[in-house]
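Weekly puzzle thread! Below is a chain. First person to post its structure in token form gets bragging rights.
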Amino acid sequence: MSKPTALVTGAAQGIGFACAQVLAEDGFELVLCDVKSDEVKSAAAQISDTAIGMACDVSDQQQVEAMFDQIERERGPVAALVNNAGISRPCDFLETTLETWQQVLNINLTGTFLVTQRAARAMVEHKIKGSIVNMSSVNDRVAIPTIAPYCASKGGVMQLTKTAALSLAPHGIRVNAVGPGSIDTAMMAGVNPDSEAMDRVMSRTPLKRIGEPREVANVVAFLAGDKSSYISGEVIYIDGGRLAMNYTC
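Winning reply:
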């Protein structure tokens, strides 16, 4: 029996790569996509001999369609999708340009919509009771003043997750999200560039440490697999206790 196919976007590094690793360990055949063509192919080679690395800008509908067409020719329809592709462009709110705003929302929110819709259409056509996991953030509920576009995009991802879950439930397709807090990635380093910023992070992290990409990936794999078969429309936060805080611990 052939293994089901899982697609992870933004998988060349960080959380996306960790998700691909854990899903492969759980028995999926992996397709990794990223705008970084060479890096994503290298990442796929590290996963397994059969994993595929593909270049794709998820904010470009034509590229998304072409990617899924190729996957379906070579591997069949996707049974599990992880929408991880995302960017952040830290900037003072008053200095944030429309170009920056649109770039972040195009990738983080519109890209998630385009990939989710295309994957779901194939799942419905082939009667696959698949699972879609979106990468949200604690910033879908709380805000950082220097990343307004990012916070807005993740609020949109949270609501997209819920609406897609309701729309696709009659087809047996589950849609959930995870909301990481401060995870050891290049994106976090960009938002918290110095020791003072990291001290602020620790002041609002009850577990008093930064999370690891694999700790996010383990929850993603749970949501992608059968052990979460009655969970849909939820966001699980992986934040070291941050959202539970009422004051600085």
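Puzzle host: Confirmed. Bonus trivia for everyone else. The longest strand covers residues 174-180.
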